[in-house]
Amino acid sequence: MTQDSGNRFGGGGNRRGGQNRRGPQRGGRSGGPPSRGRGGPNRGPRNAPLAAGRTSAVTVRTRRIIELPPVMSVKDLADAFSISPPQVIGSLIRSGVMATINQQIDYDTAEIIATELGYQTRLVVPQTDEERLISQLEQPVAEAALQTRPPVVTVMGHVDHGKTRLLDAIRQTNVVEGEAGGITQHIGAYQVEIQGRKITFLDTPGHEAFTAMRARGAQVTDIVVLVVAADDGVMPQTLEALAHAKAADVPIVVAVNKIDREGANPDRVKQQLSDQALIPDDWGGDTPFVNVSALTRTGIDDLLGILLLVADIREFKADPTRLAEGVIVEARVDPNQGPSATVLVQNGTLKLRDSVLVGGVIGRVRMMYDDKGQKLRKAEPATPVRILGLESVPAAGDSLMVITDERLARQVADQRARTTQIMSTATLRPATLDEWFKGASDTSKELRIVLKADVQGSLGAIQHSLGQLTETNVNVSIVYSGTGTISESDVRLAAASGAIVVGFNVRPDVAARRVAESENIDIRFYNIIYNLIDEVKAALTGMLDPEFREVTDGYGEVRAIFRLPGREQAAGVYITDGRAIRNSKVRVLRNGAVVHDGSISSLKRFKDDAREVATGFECGLQIQGFNEFEDGDNVEFYHREQVRR
Predict the structure, then answer these.
(1) What CA–CA distance (Å, rounded) separates 112 from 121?
(2) 56 φ, ψ to 5°?
(3) What domains can you pick out in the chain, each with its CATH number?
(4) Greatest CA separation found in the chain?
(5) How confident is the model at residue 434 (pLDDT cuts 50, 70, 90)?
(6) Residue with more model confidence, 280 or 428
(7) Which stretches of 339-391 are DSSP H helices?
(8) What secondary structure letter does DSSP report for 18?
(9) Are the C-beta atoms of residues 567 and 500 closer than 8 Å to each other?
(10) pTM of the model
(11) Is beta strand 593-605 parallel, antiparallel or unpaired with respect to 634-643?
């Protein structure tokens, strides 16, 4: 090989040193590798340029933030860092973690290794299959396309305070059409026009339905109208409706109805509601109060004007140009037309022949009707319509979205069906006190309670005692409080508000019990205030002891009373639900309040002793130490079983 050829490869010497091998350059290996071209054989001390190179490499690494999942294998982590798995394993060993290439490690461990190696990371929770599919169907929000839409209003209030008559009076106030009368086809919602603008009303059967929809995540109401009779004042269901409206966090307008009645006192209504932190606007508050008479239609226009004013302040907007999105108000199977659903369009414009995904149901809009039964070809935001063409009946509160990819939509529907089957009672709320404590963290600052008691005195004492629990960093918030039986509405309010139900010397009715079981809502029962306060305090401080849980076996109704020798009584009981078991404990309930809690001394079918009596049968019942049955009393059979926390 010639010298020129050697220079070509070595820049003054070949790979092994060439002709300079024995000369002054013999120590060239310590001066760094020879240059391949320009530059000469030696560039100075080795340590300085390599140290600078290492610093530069770390700087480059920290510029890019690497996204990591909550759990990953060592190999996945090495691939994310673009390094070899042995390097990651070495760092793990130095940190005291013995791992193999396929071992799973959590994000916290990976973050420590990343810091040691000079990388910055960020935790990214991967999307579920449904979230990934839905993200492909979602549409971007175009702020420039947003337009003002009609407000959506729900009317709530106490029974017999004129809610239905007020709705009828509002239906007749359609200044554009001039029509008088009810809805031709009841679809659960309707619109009226006033001053050239529309208002949408949800015609729900009370606050139970209102809350049931909200419990499913369907926040459809913009404004709540709370109806209170001027001659009757605030009643228990008024406070209950108010609690539901506050839990929904929507503006409230109070309609003081029946001002034409003798004894009407609107100022008393204002005073009573101001005690509930609902301050009238003319008293310096922010809640509009409107005096109306549904019978004479006095003040109806004023009420509608106030609703439009609130809508102007809140600026409810939607984009009518995009594909429609909405929520199901109600749904049923029509014998002649098949599955039918009332949809409140919330965004976009729903059109005939649109393909839709509704919860876990897909379909195509074949027919569309307004609240008067007239056919429509399209429905803009805040418009309620009844649609036909779904494959099956969806649930109230399910979301509707127009889709363009039917194959992808069917995948979403199938995924939702599987999710529903696996987690039929899955919720985002702390359904029980134990679950609430397990999920409590620095961000969990509130334990919500729906409180029911037998009398007002006990209720006030419990509220005061719960308010004194200040030794923890967690607030106790009483979402609603009242006296009497724990009702279905109480349980639904707890479901929608993420609360537990606490009953003091009262019990739930059958409907409430069934809803609590289906929704997995915790109902706690007490007859001593100190026990109630101590258990809530223990829950807040994480010191709950093992408990005995009550399991209800059945319910019965006293239909006959028999006098026995020795001044004893036996009751003829009809089992209305569940079963009566001889070894069960038993409570006697009168008007929802507990009058006795004891043990069964005798359970008979005709003249024979019975071990248990099923639903639909009658039995003779004696209770140890209790001889004060009355016709119409209810009895609850239960037993206690130990539960490990």
Answers:
(1) 10
(2) -65, -40
(3) 3-44 (no CATH), 56-123 (no CATH), 152-315 (3.40.50.300), 325-422 (2.40.30.10), 433-545 (3.40.50.10050), 550-643 (2.40.30.10)
(4) 133
(5) low
(6) 280
(7) none
(8) G
(9) no
(10) 0.54
(11) unpaired
Strand 65-68 to 608-609 pairing? unpaired
Question: Would you state the structure tokens that stand for residue 583, as one six-digit string?
Answer: 């070894």
Tokens read off for 448: 């919500």
Calpha distance 360→394 (Å, rounded): 7
Of the candidates 248, 178, 259, 183, the residue with the CA atom closest to the CA atom of residue 220? 248
Q: At 606, which amino acid appears?
A: F
Q: Are 544 and 604 in contact (CB under 8 A)?
A: no
Q: Confirm if 299 and 306 have CB atoms less than 8 A apart.
A: no
Hey, what are 286's tokens? 């922010």
Residues in contact with 72: Cβ distance below 8 Å, sequence separation at least 6, in sequence order: 80, 104, 105, 107, 110
Mean pLDDT of 604-618: 90
Please provide residue 103's backbone torsions phi and psi, each rounded to the nearest 5 degrees.
-70, 145
Whether 192 and 370 have beta carbons less than 8 Å apart is answered as: no
| E-assigned strand segments in 414-567 | 446-453, 475-483, 499-504, 523-526, 547-564
Tokens 């799973």: give the residue: 104
SS3 71: strand
**pLDDT bucket at 388, cuts 50 / 70 / 90:** very high
CB 532 within 8 A of CB 503: no
By CB neighbour count within 10 A (0-12 exposed, 13-18 middle, 19+ buried), where does 334 fall? exposed
506 closest CA partner among 575, 434, 446, 589: 589
> How confident is the model at residue 34, as a pLDDT?
43
H/E stretch holding 369 reads strand 361-369
Which residue's structure tokens are 């008088």?
A: 180
Rounded to the nearest integer, the mean pLDDT of the chain is 78
Length of the chain: 645
Confirm if 283 and 277 have CB atoms less than 8 A apart: no
DSSP letters, 422-486, are H-TT--SS--SHHHHHHH--TT--EEEEEEEESSHHHHHHHHHHHHT--SSS-EEEEEEEEESSB
pLDDT tens-digit map of 59-81: 444 456 888 888 888 888 899 88
What is the rounded end-to-end Cα distance, in angstroms, of the chain? Answer: 86
